[in-house]
Amino acid sequence: MLAIATVHLRAGFGGPAPLTASGGNVANTRICSYHPQAPALKASIGRSAIRAARRGRTISVDLKLEVIVLPVTDVDRARAFYEAAGFRLDLDKAPTEDWRAVHLTPPGSECSIMFGKGLTSAEPGSIQGLYLVVADIEQARGELVGRGIQVSEVFHDGGGLVFHGHEGGDVTHRAPQARLTGPHPERADYGSFATFRDPDGNGWVLQEVRKRAPGR
């Protein structure tokens, strides 16, 4: 079975985590300026939440990200792609001709994806930077390729453990030379990557993590 763990969405790798039930500090949250939705992400934090965090108040309930809606053009094609990638099919319902929901979950993940008809007005292929955390990136890439998925070669960031942004449906860096072929030379956690896209261009990133950073 493909060893893909929880999906992680990030505004910018390396910054503090947003406010959570475990006590993350929104007041100190930084949003990477290279993220295409940085203005909206910053606005979504809200001044009241920042003031509350500064007063030491935290959210007392879990806020669990469990579903990400993907915009696709051909629902059957998208379903076939994600099933080929090893995602578990949880649901496929179409109570009317104008509405359909397909729900799938990556192996080992607590977060699922959903797509279909009548679910979103977003442009197909417009969702980028969906992270799949894996324990062994070379094994994960090999299994995906063996299932017929086109995956980039494994690479690491020559400037350190930092991703600089997303352009054109793929993960890029400030300078081409910053993206070096092969896993991180020391196999540092959060330091090795590979990318792939679904048939509509929605972009995924494999990231190797064996031991999580404190608080993550």
TrEMBL record:
It holds the Pfam family Glyoxalase. Residues 64-209 form the VOC domain. Gene3D superfamilies: 2,3-Dihydroxybiphenyl 1,2-Dioxygenase, domain 1. InterPro entries: Glyas_Bleomycin-R_OHBP_Dase, Glyas_Fos-R_dOase_dom, VOC_core. SUPFAM superfamilies: Glyoxalase/Bleomycin resistance protein/Dihydroxybiphenyl dioxygenase. This is VOC domain-containing protein.
